[in-house]
Amino acid sequence: MRRFGLGSGPLKRRSDRIQVVGRVVVVLSVLGSPPLAVAAATATGSHLDEVAAAEAASRTRATAVLLAEAPPPRSVGGAGDFGQADPRPPRVPAVWTDRDGRERRGDVVAAPGAPAGSPVHVWLDAGGEPARAPRDPATIPVTAAAVGASTLLVVPLGAGACYVVLCAGLDRYRDRRWAREWASVGPGWTSRSL
Question: Alpha carbon 62 to chain centroid distance?
Answer without folding.
Answer: 34
